[in-house]
Amino acid sequence: MKAKKSKVVLYLKKAVSTSRVKLLLWKESISTIP
């Protein structure tokens, strides 16, 4: 049970970090478009 929970936490952390990167890339792409 404990191992499963930690796996979920890792997955959530990964999802948050990837969405954060996507958001940054999205903002950058908007700022580069004149």
UniProtKB/TrEMBL annotation:
Source domain of life: Bacteria
Full protein name: Uncharacterized protein
